[in-house]
Design brief:
Mean pLDDT: 78
Shape: rod-shaped
Organism: Nocardioides panzhihuensis
Protein name: GAF domain-containing protein
Keywords: Coiled coil
Low-confidence stretches: 540-544
Largest sheet: 6 strands, antiparallel
Pfam families: GAF, GGDEF_2, HTH_30
CATH superfamily of the largest domain: GAF domain
CATH topology of the largest domain: Beta-Lactamase
InterPro entries: CdaR-like_regulators, CdaR_GGDEF, GAF, GAF-like_dom_sf, PucR_C-HTH_dom, PucR_C-HTH_sf
Radius of gyration: 54 Å
Distance between the termini: 177 Å
Structural class: alpha+beta
Strand content: 15-25%
Number of strands: 16
CATH architecture of the largest domain: 2-Layer Sandwich
Length: 631
């Protein structure tokens, strides 16, 4: 019988299962083959199965190489280190068809440490560190050679450690294979595959894992280099931005220095400083006095918020720059004396860090120093001018008024029109008289007025202002320096010294009487005028002057009679004597009723409407009586 080799070839060609190769042997036995013929058939079957196994092994190897190539290709495309490491252990688990896979990286100071895992269940295993030479992984890292074991715990080839063995047992791992990740002669880590059953890893598995580890080491190194490059580029960008910011800060500082220098040299003011700093720093800038009032602002229409006021107070309390975010303040200091504060508001362009850098803080503090110099200079000028104005006011109040031409020239030098009308204010101020006097000088200067201290009282005059408004200016202006309520007597407006040389003295006397009456009546901390007191002021004033009272109530009528030769004062006396009856008044004066009516209309134009109201009427009658007595 001839052996049917073709049948076995057909089975090989058809990729038949191993059991199908028994078919030709059964057919030979059924055909009555001799023992020799049966042996030849079985031999042919054995050869066919060997060929099948070789083909199967080559297909498997081809598949493994294809998978390995695909893995290498995938690893080459990954640039993130964590993604590369995770892809390595995932591929290792797939290629070896293992239960778990994991990878450790070398730490020169503390040994190997677990970086990524696939299929691991316990946290203890993930946190395991493997010292050099300890366990299978430690031996792989130390010798740079692959090692495997079918059952790790009883394997005595390795140096065991209780914590490592405990982690392995806790995970249920039995068989382990580990291969080194090599870069040249340097081990950067170890790649593992493991099973939870006793199942040895063959040479093919070891070769496959070694090949994967070779590609993995290159991918890890590339990813590391990319990360280091990215970090270096990011650091370079940060350094570049810092250098750019530093250059910008230097340029801003130089610009600010030039601007501030020009302001000082060219005689600029605080407004110029505020405007320049706002332009340089791109933010709102405000200079405040110690009471929180605005001296100058780059945004006049924008008020200071409560938070900004709190930051300003903190900077004054600390005597240094304070604030955070986009609100800062620095004190304006002249030595140890605080003159105010400089507030820096939100920036027009947001900065990356949001905080004030050292360069900008120095610009702000330098601007505050220049502001202090300008405020000191302005104060010195104001004090010098105030002394000159005070001396002139003191001369006017003493009755030693210079001749009109000299007075006009002195007014011109002080840029004051002494022909205007003035309100006169006398203030009783407790506390330090020198300090209050300085405050009074400042208040007067800011309103084109004059101030002086006479007989322990502060005297101020203000042009083109009524008595009450002038008194309120003084109360508000002296409140802080006095530290207590300020009581004020006010008079006027009275003609200026060029128009009427003695008018200011008369206004001064009236204001003093109003102040004395206010103190007697217990009206401390208030503004009191002759209109407030009426004839009561004449009765209560410590140095009451009837003539002054008559002038304050009837002056225009008396002056009109003197200028026109009329009889308005006589008409008023007769009018009141006749109980304000027009007919009886006309009869007593021997004139027509219309004449009386015309005279009373003239009085109304001179004294103003309301002079016949009960309170004013009483004051006018008293003035008429006093006028008769004084005359």
């Amino acid at each position: 019988m001839t052996v049917d080799v073709v049948a076995f070839l057909e089975l090989l060609a058809g990729d038949a299962a191993e059991a199908d190769f028994e078919g030709p042997s059964r057919s030979a036995r059924a055909a009555g083959a001799t023992a020799e013929e049966q042996a030849r058939v079985d031999y042919a079957k054995g050869l066919a199965l060997q060929v099948r196994d070789i083909l199967e092994a080559r297909r498997r190897r081809e598949g493994e190489l294809g998978a390995l190539f695909e893995s290498a290709n995938d690893l080459a495309m990954l640039t993130n280190l964590e993604a590369v490491l995770q892809a390595i252990v995932t591929r290792a688990k797939q290629l070896l068809n293992s239960d778990v896979a994991y990878l450790t990286l070398n730490d020169e100071r503390r040994g190997e440490y677990m970086r990524v895992t696939e299929g691991i269940l316990t946290a203890a295993f993930r946190s395991t560190r493997i010292p050099y030479g300890i366990g299978l992984g430690g031996l792989v890292a130390q010798t740079m050679k692959p090692y495997s074991t079918a059952d790790y715990i009883p394997d005595e080839r390795f140096r065991h450690a209780p914590d490592i063995d405990g982690a392995v047992s806790g995970e249920g791992i039995r068989a382990i294979i580990g291969v080194p990740l090599l870069l040249g002669t340097q081990v950067i880590g170890v790649l593992f595959a493991a099973n939870r059953a006793v199942r040895p890893f063959g040479t093919e598995a070891s070769a496959l894992l070694v090949s994967l580890a070779a590609h993995a080491a290159i991918a890890v190194d590339k990813a590391r280099l990319l990360e280091e490059t990215r970090a270096a580029v990011a650091e370079l960008e940060v350094t570049t931005r810092k250098l750019q910011a530093r250059n910008e800060a230097v340029e801003r500082a130089a610009d600010a220095h030039d601007r501030l220098t020009r302001i000082v040299v060219e005689g600029g003011g605080v407004d110029d400083v505020v405007r320049s700093v706002a332009e340089v720093l791109g933010a709102r800038v405000v200079v405040l006095d110690l009471s929180g009032e605005t001296i100058a602002s780059s945004a006049p229409g924008q008020p200071v918020s409560d938070y900004e006021a709190a930051v300003t107070r903190r900077s004054l309390d600390l005597s240094r720059t304070a604030g955070s975010g986009d609100i800062y303040a620095t004190p304006v200091l002249a030595g140890a004396e605080q003159l105010g504060s400089m507030l820096l508001g939100p920036r027009e362009v947001d900065r990356e860090d949001g905080d004030l850098d050292d360069g900008d803080q120095r610009i702000l503090e330098r601007a505050a120093l220049v502001t202090a110099l300008l405020l000191l200079f302005r104060r010195s000028v104001a004090e010098a001018e105030g002394r000159v104005r005070g001396e002139l006011l003191d001369e006017l109040l003493s009755g030693t008024t210079p001749d009109p031409e000299t007075l006009r020239e002195r007014g011109r030098l002080l840029q004051a029109d002494l022909s205007r009308s003035y309100a006169v204010v006398v203030a009783d101020v407790p506390g330090d008289r020198a300090r209050v006097g300085q405050a009074a000088t400042f208040v007067a200067a800011t309103h084109d007025g004059f101030a002086a201290v006479r007989q322990g009282q502060v005297v101020l005059i203000f042009p083109d202002c009524d008595a009450r408004a002038a008194g309120e200016l003084v109360v508000e202006g002296l409140r802080l320096s006095a530290g207590a309520p300020v009581t004020v007597g006010a008079a006027g407006p009275v003609p200026g010294p060029l128009s009427s040389p003695g008018a200011v003295v008369r206004g001064y006397d009236e204001a003093r009487r109003c102040l004395a009456a206010a103190m007697t009546l217990g009206r401390e901390g208030q503004v009191v005028t002759a209109d407030d007191l009426g004839f009561v002021g004449l009765l209560l004033g410590s140095d009451g002057h009837p003539a002054a009272y008559v002038t304050s109530r009837l002056g225009p009528v008396i002056d009109y009679d003197a200028a026109k030769g009329s009889k308005l004062v006589e008409t008023l006396r007769t009018y009141f004597a006749a109980d304000r009856n027009l007919t009886r008044t006309a009869g007593a004066l021997h004139v027509h009723v219309n004449t009386v009516t015309q005279r009373l209309e003239r009085v109304t134009r001179l004294l103003g409407k309301g002079w016949q109201e009960p309170e004013r009427q009483l004051e006018v009658q008293l003035a008429l009586r006093l006028h008769l007595l004084v005359a």
